[in-house]
Amino acid sequence: MSVIGIVSMKGGVGKTSATANLAAAMATTLGANRVSVVDLDPQNALHWHFGLQSALTAGVCEQSLRGADWADAMASSEFGVACLPYGNVSEPDREAFELLLETDSQWVGAQVKRAGLGNDAVVLIDTPPGPSVYMRQVFACADLVLIVLLADAGSYATIPAMESWLDEVPDSDFRPPSLYVLNQIDRSEPLNRDVAEQLQRHLGARLAPIGIHRDEAVGEALAFQQPVLVYDPHGQASHDLARLASWVINTLNR
Ligand SMILES: Nc1ncnc2c1ncn2[C@@H]1O[C@H](COP(=O)(O)OP(=O)(O)OP(=O)(O)O)[C@@H](O)[C@H]1O
Ligand SMILES: [Mg+2]
Questions:
Q1: pTM exceeding the 0.85 threshold for the entire prediction
Q2: Ligand 1 contact, 44 CB (< 6 A)
Q3: Does ligand 1 lie within 6 Å of residue 17's CB atom?
Q4: With a cut of 50, which residues of the chain have pLDDT below it?
Q5: Integer CA distances (angstroms), 177 to 15, 138, 172, 224, in order
Q6: Ligand 2 midpoint to CA 162 (Å)
Q7: Which of 23, 56, 119, 137 is least surrounded by Cβ atoms within 10 Å, i.e. has the fewest?
């Protein structure tokens, strides 16, 4: 099994969209029933990308508090990706879950294993922005972490904070490889182009070789509750995501 974490220091950079759309792109290559997504963000938005709006309370939070198997709350989608929502939960339940995650640093990895998804499964985990107990859990169980960035000054400014956070991850010998992925690339915008070039120089091999262009179809696809590869299969974002999916699959040796 391979686990991919999707994180960012800054909010709104496209983590949830990237998680959903990359998963759908990977499912296209790997086949149905091999790719799952787990929503570790209390915003509980990931399932919308797969048209699974019925997922309300059941999810990682409630299953964890009940000691129940995560697999029982996993919903199959028509896009070849199974989705485990965070769940729509009360504040006390969210706090209790976060306390559990503080107490057991390996909880998420253990639950993903216990879900029995199979040796050839790929699991993508979405997280809330910034340092959090969720981000720590992902680093403790992932084989690869993708750090999403925009080509803007705001994202650029978060790189030192991200790097010092990484330096402080416990058991740094076992820290999974983490690579930055540029989202919303727009070469027609001078600032976007300049920051992208600066990031390439600054991050070198830490920047994934494939980024995702800005494409209105990403937001439109969510409005139709579909992965962008289904909504607009021949668009720029779909093209980028298909390439990114192949690159991730090769990187994981899948
Ligand atoms: N490549 C893209 N092109 C155009 N719009 C995009 C792209 N990627 C994401 N977006 C848009 O950016 C907004 C934020 O995306 P998303 O919710 O995925 O970010 P996030 O990092 O998960 O946010 P949060 O930090 O709140 O969890 C959404 O409106 C989404 O449609
Ligand atoms: Mg999000």
A1: yes
A2: no
A3: yes
A4: none
A5: 18, 12, 11, 34
A6: 17
A7: 119
